[in-house]
Amino acid sequence: MKKLKNEKALTKKALALGMDYGERRGAVEFEATDSAADRLEYIYRLLVHDGIIQPLPEDQVSQKSIQHKLAIWASKQPDPAG
Fold first, then answer.
1. Maximum C-alpha span of the chain
2. Per-residue pLDDT tens listing for the chain (82 residues)
3. Is 6 within 8 Å of 67 (Cβ atoms)?
4. CB neighbours of 64 closer than 8 A, spacing ≥ 6?
5. With CB atoms counted within 10 Å of each terminal CB, which end of the chain scores lower, N or C?
6. Which phi and psi angles does 3 have, rounded to 5°?
7. Could you give the CA distance from residue 80 to residue 77 in angstroms, rounded to a whole number?
8. Which residue from 61, 35, 54, 55 is spatially nearest to 15, judged by alpha carbons?
9. Distance between CA atoms of 12 and 74, rounded to whole angstroms?
């Protein structure tokens, strides 16, 4: 897995977009005490469930691979600022 040029920023974008998507969909309400890792995993599983992204093989699911997969997804999303 090749690291993206701006993967950290894209992961943050994915977290924001995914949280917004999950809450608008009515599937989740994130709490302030939820860790970023838990939020990212939930967003990943929700996007897979909804058919928005392809799932990773279950034996390859890790925090690092989830972050990478969501960063790729975020890179393909339009910038909310315009």
1. 38
2. 777 789 999 999 999 999 999 999 999 899 999 999 999 999 999 999 999 999 999 999 999 999 999 999 999 998 766 5
3. no
4. 1
5. C
6. -70, 140
7. 9
8. 35
9. 9
